Amino acid sequence: MKTFRQMQKKKTNAEPIVMLTAYDYPSARLAEEAGVDIILVGDSLGMVVLGYESTVPVTVDDMIHHAKAVKRGAPETLIVVDMPFMSYHGSHEETNRHARQIMQQTGAHAVKLEGGAEISTTVRALVSAGVPVVGHLGLTPQSVGVLGGYRVQGKTAVEAKTLLEDAHALEDAGACAVVVECVPAEVAEVLAKDLEVPVIGIGAGKATDGQVLVYHDVLSYSPHSAPSFVKSYDNSYERMGDALQVYVNETRSRQFPEHTFSMPEEEKKAWQQ
Ligand code: KIV
Ligand code: NA
User: Fold this and answer.
1) ipTM attached to this prediction
2) Which residues, including other chains, have CB under 8 Å from residue 206's CB and lie 6 or more apart?
3) 232 labeled binding residue
4) Are 210 and 17 in contact (CB under 8 A)?
5) Which residue has a Cα nearest atom 2 of ligand 1?
6) Is residue 112 a known part of a binding site?
7) Where is 3-methyl-2-oxobutanoate annotated to bind (predicted)?
8) Which domains does the chain have, with CATH numbers?
9) N or C, which terminus of the chain has less Cβ within 10 Å?
């Protein structure tokens, strides 16, 4: 069983932490078999699996439904589940109820929340209730409407300073790790050096304590092109499309099926009389 303590040790030993999203049984199983350290059931679910245009429509129930399947596929891996849009912006009571539903129903090890200093009291309330919390700074897709698009964050000196303050606020509130998305490599490097807890980057350069990518981006398992910082290790959408085309063609030409069942000869005779 992997733990956040082990992730902390990896940071101390300068061993990169590998995080990958997964959303269902086979993706989780492949991630666990590949040896990833942390599986994130990201609310990117909304875009890469459910076909929404942003993560905003994703619900707590959506997250739970998919996280349960991930847990079945990866029983030995650390699992973090995103709290979706506005599920942690009401009362602490409501936030805690959503976190409890996620933790109890899915068997996840932690939840992840987007935001900095403005959510630090929420993070503190969750941690004091026994819920491990991962933070998420930089590009925070749930706020795409406020940010005005999916763009690099922390490019100015003022923004970089705010990012560092936010990261410290999360750490002080008890976050066990912080994801930092789409920020200049220099800023992410300082962040990783400054914080005690692991800083896991996505589009944040090489110097973070670990990397996280979206499953469908790593495999190019999507009809849409991935962000520029992604490295794709396969062209699975294209390959799967080709395979399906062969199935369609072979069925139309009766080349498929090849394997068939038949009756024993004597039964066939008896049946035909
Ligand atoms: O939802 C997600 O996949 C994420 C990662 C991009 C960090 O939050
Ligand atoms: Na997310």
Assistant:
1) 0.99
2) 185
3) no
4) yes
5) 42
6) yes
7) 43-44, 82, 112
8) 4-235 (3.20.20.60), 241-272 (no CATH)
9) C
Is any atom of ligand 1 closer than 6 Å to the C-beta of 166? Answer: no
87: left (phi over 0), alpha (psi -120 to 50) or beta: alpha
Alpha-carbon distance of 245 to 24, in angstroms, equals 25
Ligand 1 contact via 42 beta carbon (within 6 Å): yes
Per-residue pLDDT of the chain (273 residues; tens, 9 = 90+): 679 999 999 999 999 999 999 999 999 999 999 999 999 999 999 999 999 999 999 999 999 999 999 999 999 999 999 999 999 999 999 999 999 999 999 999 999 999 999 999 999 999 999 999 999 999 999 999 999 999 999 999 999 999 999 999 999 999 999 999 999 999 999 999 999 999 999 999 999 999 999 999 999 999 999 999 999 999 999 999 999 999 999 999 999 999 999 999 999 999 987
CA of 34 to the centre of ligand 2 (A): 22
Nearest-angstrom CA–CA distance, 218 and 212: 10
